[in-house]
Amino acid sequence: MENPYHSPRADVSTREGPSESLDDVVSGQKLVIYAILLYFAAALLRVALGPVAIVLALACMVMSWVGMYRMTRGLDYPMWWRIVLMVLMLVPLLGLLVLVVLSSKGTTRLREAGYSVGLLGARDY
Questions:
Q1: pLDDT tens string for the chain (125 positions)?
Q2: I want to staple 38 with a disulfide (CB 3.0 to 4.6 A). Which of 16, 23, 60, 82 is the partner?
Q3: What gap in Å lies between CA 33 and CA 64, rounded to an integer?
Q4: Is the dihedral of CA 33, 70, 106, 21 positive or negative?
Q5: Minimal CA–CA distance to 43: which of 28, 34, 56, 33?
Q6: Which residues does 89 contact at the CB level (< 8 Å), separation at least 6?
Q7: Residues 94 and 88 sit within 8 Å (Cβ to Cβ)
Q8: DSSP conformation class of 90
Q9: Contact between 56 and 39 (Cβ < 8 Å)
Q10: Which of 71, 79, 118 is nearest to 98 (CA)?
C-alpha cells in the first residue's frame, strides 16, 4: 500500500542529459531572443534619439549573428546554410523573420529533449 502523504514524484527519465549541442541551442536561443528584443528597442529609440540608436542596431546585429551561429551549430546545420542565414540577416525584416523561425526550431528541439521553454528561453536547463 502506497503512502498517500508522499510528495508527487516527477518522471524525469525522458529528459536528455545536458550535452554540448543542447548547450549551444540554449545559449544561442537566449542570445537570439535578446537580439529580437534589442531590435525592437533600437527601432523605438531610433525615433527618439536618431542616429545614436545605430549603435544599438549594430549590437543587435552582432548578438544575433553569434546567437544564430550557436543555434545552427547545436541544431547541426551545415556550414553553407549558416552562411546563407548570416547573409539573410543583413536584410532588415527578413533578418527578424529568420531569428523568429530559428528560435522556434530551437524551442522545438529543447522541448523534444524534455526541457520546458518559456518566453526567454529554456527555464530549467
A1: 677 777 777 665 566 666 778 888 999 999 999 988 988 888 888 888 877 778 888 888 899 999 999 999 999 999 999 999 999 988 888 988 999 999 999 999 988 888 888 888 887 76
A2: 60
A3: 8
A4: negative
A5: 56
A6: 61, 64, 65, 68, 95, 98, 99
A7: yes
A8: T
A9: no
A10: 71
C-alpha–C-alpha distance, residues 17 and 3, integer Å: 30
Pairwise CA distance, residues 124 & 118, whole Å? 10
Q: 15, 124, 45, 32: which is closest to 71 by C-alpha?
A: 32
68, 89 Cβ separation under 8 angstroms = yes
pTM beyond 0.85: the answer is no
Show the cell assigned to 62. Answer: 552582432
The residue count of the chain comes to 125
Rounded Cα gap, residues 57 and 95, in angstroms:
12
The x, y and z cell numbers of residue 122, run together, are 529554456
